What does this fold into?
Amino acid sequence: MNRSRIPEVLTVAELVHHGPLAKATLLAAVPLDAQVRFVRLISDLEQTRQCRPHTALVMHNPAAHGGWALESALRAAWERNAACVISPADTTVTPSTIALAERLKVPLFTVRTDPAEHALELAAAIASPGAGRAQLAARCATSISEQTSLRGIVGVINDELPGSAVALVGEDGAVLAGRAAAVGGQVSIAVPSVEGKPWARLVARVPVSSASAEETVTTILRLARASLAACAARPHLALARRGAQERLLLAALLSGQQDAETEIAAREHGWRFDQTTVAVVVRATARAAGVDPDVATAGMLASWFEVFGDQPLVPHGDGWATWWTSPDLTALQVQSILGSRLTKVTCALPLCAGVGEPATSPDGWRRSFREAGLAASVAAQSGAGAVEAFDALGPRVVLAVLSQRELLSAAETALHSLLSTADGDVLVQTLCAMLDCGGSTSQAATRLGVHRNTVSGRLERIRARGVEFDDPDYRLALHVAAFVLLGHRTAESPG
Amino acid sequence: MRIGARLSGHAVRGVLVDGTRVLAQASADGVRALGAVLNELGAMAPGAVQSVTLDISDVLLDAVRRPDLEPGGNPVGVLRVLPRPPQHPAVADHPSDLLRSFVRYRATVAGGHDLFGAPLAPLDQAKAVEAARAARELGLGALAVVATGAVGSPGHESAVAEAVLDAVPELQVSLSHEIGGIGLLMRETAAVLNAVLLSVAGQVVDRCERAIRRLGNVPCWFATSDGGRASAERLRALPVIGLEARAAMTLRGAAVRNEVKDAVMLIEDGDTYLIGEVRDGLPRVAPDLRGTLGLRLAAPQAVSTVVSTAAFHANRSRWLHGALGSPVSVIQNIELDLAAVGAASCEPTAWLDAVVHADSADELRARQRTMKERVLSMVVAGETPPGTERIIESSAVSLTYIPSGAYRLRVRAAAGTSP
Amino acid sequence: MTTLTSLKADDLPALLAGADLFASGASRDDLDGMRYWLSALLTERDPIRLVTPDELAPNALCASVCFVGSITALAELPMTGDEPHRVLQALENRLGAKLDAVVALDVASLNALMPVAAAALHGLPLVDCDGMGRVFPLIYQTSYELAGLPLAPLAAVGPTGDTFVLDTTSSERAERVLRATLNHSGGWMLTAMYPTTAAQLATAAIPGSISRAVTVGRALIDATDTDDLTSRLQASTGSRVLGIGRVVELEQRTRRATSGYPAYPSSIVVRTHSDPVRSIRLEAQNELLLALVDGAVTAAVPDIICLLDPNDGRVTGVESVTVGSEVLVLAIPPAPVWRTPQGLAMVGPRSFGFELRHPNEELRP
It folds into this structure.
């Protein structure tokens, strides 16, 4: 904490806000920004004539007796620039005395406690303003840690700061917890979620505008941030836990070693495989920011259910599994459903999907899941939103199995000499096209959409780099390398 | 629907009022004036007339100022009840020559109580009866009886009244404690004026009741000096309470017409201004003031000043000194008789002024409560809607220079709905 | 100030008006009966001789006549007219000597009239002086006491006809015993006390009090409007106006009663008509003792604080003030004897239960 920002002198307002004057009754409506440096217990009115500026005058019998003594003290307070006058509660204060206090702008309080005791409390508070603040902070920290809900935490803060109103406000402005009066207040600090994303703000309205009071409130609010974020994250974590359970359950079903318990559990989840089932695997496209899919699941689920209704979304492998079950279902139908709606699912990661073949037996839908997984791998190379059906893949399914990550580094090494040039990408593209077309330059030119001579020139440059694609021993490897590199590049730039 | 009217000399000016709205007015002169005004207003009333309230203060004042006229004030006798007889003629007498002009016989008998109710001397009832006989022999028709300490301890005055009425039945007796106030001379003033006015008041009230009877069974009220009203019976017995009603009724009527409740009232009446104040619709009153006759009376009367228009405009701020902060409400007393309007809208009032002893703040409060209850019960005795009675003023002042614990308590109450 | 040498019936209104002012808030307007009686007394007799102490033989025997008790009680139970004569007689009997002159204990309110009545009825001259210069609630709060004159023996007569004579060496006890009898004696007593010689009186008394009261009273009566009134008063007494306004608060028992003093404390708050508005708070117990303007102590006992009706210049007593009354608050400096340290010790704010220094008091080193 920046020590130099905490002022050393308290004001009347702060003593009211979180000091001994919190239990006093303020009788006159006057500004409370006077500093309080000293406390003086007054038993003889002569003492008021000799007090130093910025003194809190605590009236004590016999000086307290009678409205005249109070008025005399108020006058002396005004003349000597005292901070305030505090009178015992048993002194009758008439409207004319209050009017005088307001005219002279001297804060007038009454307290029920013994004046001498009260004076001691005040003296302690003003002797070390930081101590009071630190005590308040310690108390708040303890109370906050005992709370388990947003309402509980914000409620504790409101209790500890009776002078202020505090609220937790979402990014959309809705009050999530606390007092609505706080909205628009002077103090506002951000409360990020556990993932570090903007989630809500803690706002506070401090009735007496003073830098020090705002400082105190800010300190307390900062204490609460971590607890608030953790409280809010719990529902997310619950979701993640459920995801893990479902993953295990599905795995058990697909392993072929299910037992009665697994079947019961599946039924409880509402999972049906009794009719024609078409399996689908949804996954992130090949390259995406390092986000834990389990966490991403939580963020995705709400949106998924919104788009696809009751469709389960079970973590599976690197992605998620889902399936459609209905009589006479075809893969094409499922593919078209996915094709039109998958992009509507909001997720931190770009999604694609693979669709398996329809099945009607346990063995059948296990196979369907494997097919869906392979199709999804191919879809991943085509970019976000791509949906591939297994039966349309054909031989390309073999390529789908290729583990993109491991091959990429090998491919980069193999074609390093090309990649290090400025037009490396173009050259790799040309090489791949030519090998796709079985060495035909003119077909490659058509595939790429350029002139035959352009292709020849590029091929010359490739040969010049030492890439010997004419050699049958290297041709397959180079083709695979180029294919992998191109797929990577495609994944990185969603179509 | 109510009728209010002011009698002055042979003239009567009246109004018909519904709540605070004046529906009609009428005026007449001469012997049958009141009957004429009442008939006219009664005929214009869309509904039943609930009451008729009359301000007869001018009639009463005239009886005192011009006793030679018929009906005029009659000479009376005074009987004082004190522990020791006066030792100087000036002490035996009354300082006011107006009052002295009505007193044809004076006597002092032993008796009386101190301010806390302790008897100062045994009552010499026999001597009181002797004095009554002597007064009657002089041809006097009424006797004012004033005993020291009578407000707190009315016993001696009541005993004198009983004995005198037994022995001299034709003599009317006016007891000072029935009118109230602290101060022997002030009570004597009131008791004497009362005795002086008994006969006049009786005649006037009879006349008024006869005239009102033609409207049906409508209650007859009379305006009082403190801004309230009293029953015909009460005014017959205590006419002095109506003596200063005019200023109070005028202020009240002005406030009703201008629809103000708290203001300084400036009423233009020909070539004079009447300046007074209303609070919560009621005229501001004070006890122990000198009234129109220059005599101090204990009963509360309106605090008002009459100043010529010339003098007013010469130094406006002097006359409206208290007006800074309060709104000033101006009205002319030409079209409608404001006192009649005030009479039509006034409500019953009652007051008590007494000395009590209290040793602590709690005891003082208890005494004040008792007095408040007494005043409230005084004010409801009459045809007022129950539950409308309320305390208007209550004060306690410590008596000076005697050991702590003696207080003068004053309480005023009113009943009926305020406008 | 005009020094008078005699008092006639014509002087009575002025004497009473001035006496009202020096009553420091304890003035009354229910003294009609007493005025009437005094007027008759002075009309049927020769004017009363008004003398200074020097004009008397040094060992001339003088006694102070003073009304003690409640004027409300007096209004309810008036004097019969023989009290002044009887009380002087009782004191003479006790002293075994005849009195040569009558003195005033104080020339405030009714106590301006009582020595005049006594002088008239007993056929004695009246000394133009008094022992207070205003009124104080206790009988020994006098310049006589400060000078060391004994208060007793004293004689007192009341409305019941009883006479009582008290011998004591303690003035405080005399006050307490006398005060205690009041409630059982009908509420008031006329007393004669401080028997002394003219020579002692010359140094112990505040001179010229009767003349001063008459002069000030004339100013009050002759003044044409409020401004004329305040300037005349300022010229004759050195007074100053603290404010003109309306009474907004009137509370009883607003502070603890100071033991030893009769009656109970009360407070009056006046809101002035000035701009900016000021609040004048007056603390009273029998008399007005303290005036705070916006909390600042502006006048305090022994200063004379009084209330005038700004409309007609009449002095308004504390007992007749009500919420809503218009008042002019005036402060008059006290007699010089009260400004001394001994004087302030006897009648300064602290002796009345106000723990504060008088505004004119010098700071103790």
Notes: Residues 272-396 of chain A form a domain with the Alpha-Beta Plaits fold (CATH 3.30.70.270).
